[in-house]
Specification:
122 residues, 0% strand, rod-shaped, single chain, mainly alpha
Length: 122
C-alpha cells in the first residue's frame, strides 16, 4: 500500500521534471534568439557606419527581431499553460494521494477492530 503512495508521488515528480525540462528548453531557445537579435543589431550598426551591406544587415536584424518576438509570445503562452497544467496535475495527484492514505488508514482501522473483537471473544 505504501508502494502505491510512493508511486503516486514519483509519478508527480517525474511529470514535473519532464515539464520543467521542456520549459527550460523553450527559455534556452528564447535566450539564443535574443543573442542572435543582439548580434544582428551590432552587425547592422557596423554596416551603417561603414555604409556596406546595409540592406542585408537590416533584413537580418528585422528577421532576428521577428523571430525573437515570435518565440517570446510562444514562450509566454507555453509558460502560462505549464503553470496551469502543473497546478492541475499536482492538485489531482495530491488529492489521489490523500485518498490512498485515507483508504490505507481505514483498512488499518478495520484490521485493528477485527483483532480487538477477536481478543475480546477469547
Amino acid at each position: 500500500i505504501a508502494a502505491d503512495e510512493d508511486l503516486k508521488l514519483a509519478d508527480t515528480f517525474h511529470y514535473y521534471e519532464n515539464e520543467s525540462s521542456a520549459a527550460k528548453d523553450l527559455l534556452y531557445r528564447r535566450t539564443k534568439a535574443l543573442a542572435e537579435q543582439e548580434s544582428s543589431g551590432k552587425a547592422f550598426d557596423k554596416a551603417k557606419t561603414k555604409g556596406k551591406d546595409v540592406a542585408s544587415a537590416d533584413s537580418s536584424y528585422i528577421t532576428a527581431c521577428d523571430k525573437f518576438k515570435t518565440i517570446t509570445a510562444s514562450a509566454r503562452k507555453e509558460m502560462e499553460d505549464f503553470n496551469r497544467r502543473r497546478l492541475d496535475y499536482f492538485q489531482k495527484n495530491l488529492s489521489d494521494l490523500a485518498k490512498f492514505q485515507i483508504k490505507n488508514e481505514n483498512n488499518k482501522l478495520q484490521l485493528l477492530q477485527q483483532a480487538l473483537s477477536t481478543i475480546k471473544t477469547l
